[in-house]
Amino acid sequence: MTTSTTSPPDPSASTSTSTSTLPSTIPTRLLLLSDTHIRSRSKNPLPFPVPSIPGGADIVIHAGDITDSSKLSEFSLCLSYLRQLNAPLKLIIAGNHDYTLDLPVYSQRVEAQSKSAGMGQLTLPRRKGLGEVGEAKRLLEEARKDGIFYLEEGTHRFELANGARLVVYASPATPAFGSQGFQYTQEEGHVFDVPPEADVVISHGPPRGVLDVSRLTRTSCGSVELWERVKEVRPRLHVFGHIHEAWGAAVVKWPQALAGGWEGDDGKHKGHKAKGAEMTVLVDRGSVEEGWEDSKEERKQKEERVERIVRDGYYPLKYPEREGAAEQTLFVNAAVPYAPGFVPWLVDVELPRSGMDVDGKGGSTCAEERSGETNTRSRGCMSTTLEQLQIS
């Protein structure tokens, strides 16, 4: 598990304003997407255009399943798409379809399939366009010079170009289904070591009971272990994908103390209450897709909404205002279904100002190993310094 730090140039060199006189948080614009399942042979690798965002975004987050078959050409197509997005920082994680990034799993697969086919261990992956073991990872890591960071499981800290501080926990792990990458069995379980100061959690799969109901099985498919940890940490934002049919956004209002999970598990989550917490779905597929119960006026409204978001290339999402001192987390299932009206999300989130300890989230520091590389975008200049620390 790793932690990484990225920092901009020292702002104290150009201003003498005391941080005590500045707001403690900074509005930060995020573009969220997941499960693009890019196919190298498709005439239309992505079902939506490059978003036209006035002023651009501060961060782009891709929550995994970058590719459909984990081919090098598919990773390259996704990187080309990300480079077109107007944001100084892009964060991506792997999903189960991106199995060549799971080096132990891919190594075993190459060895087994090569023996079965009577080929050398380099011949088979090359023929299928998958690359050697570790080649896909190197391809993604080379994109750091363009502000694109591939995050492995662990905690990553960034000092943003807009002056905010971001602590991210990333994890590609999902409950086992099939024989792809980054999966764990119920017997194995998984430890999601989200730090208490995390602002944003990026996981490929959803937590149990939150935007995770499969239409096929009509059951919740999310991770119990992930839910248990997220409800303790209560990050500002949790973005994920994996379950395409559960695309949507929901807010959970946390009580002072919370124990247990959701009451009931009937798959109907609007207004669904946990033991001491309440979740409200803000947007779901029914907000875009026409239903047989829709009135003529509702159908017209949905048609206009789809026309607008397809034109803009993003779905605007307002972060719910807090009521009093209650803590809350915005959950976004950003898995992009290949259908009209489903595009990346655009949301503004208040992040702590760099150097400030906000609501107990902050104050942790890391020594930096400066690479000297810089990345310039329309929203500012960010130094791509990176530190790798081994943590227990």
UniProtKB/TrEMBL annotation:
<dbReference type="GO" id="GO:0016787">
    <property type="term" value="F:hydrolase activity"/>
</dbReference>
<feature type="domain" description="Calcineurin-like phosphoesterase">
    <location>
        <begin position="29"/>
        <end position="245"/>
    </location>
</feature>
<feature type="compositionally biased region" description="Polar residues">
    <location>
        <begin position="373"/>
        <end position="386"/>
    </location>
</feature>
<dbReference type="Pfam" id="PF00149">
    <property type="entry name" value="Metallophos"/>
</dbReference>
<dbReference type="InterPro" id="IPR004843">
    <property type="entry name" value="Calcineurin-like_PHP"/>
</dbReference>
<feature type="region of interest" description="Disordered">
    <location>
        <begin position="1"/>
        <end position="23"/>
    </location>
</feature>
<protein>
    <submittedName>
        <fullName>Metallo-dependent phosphatase-like protein</fullName>
    </submittedName>
</protein>
<feature type="region of interest" description="Disordered">
    <location>
        <begin position="360"/>
        <end position="386"/>
    </location>
</feature>
<dbReference type="InterPro" id="IPR051693">
    <property type="entry name" value="UPF0046_metallophosphoest"/>
</dbReference>
<dbReference type="InterPro" id="IPR029052">
    <property type="entry name" value="Metallo-depent_PP-like"/>
</dbReference>
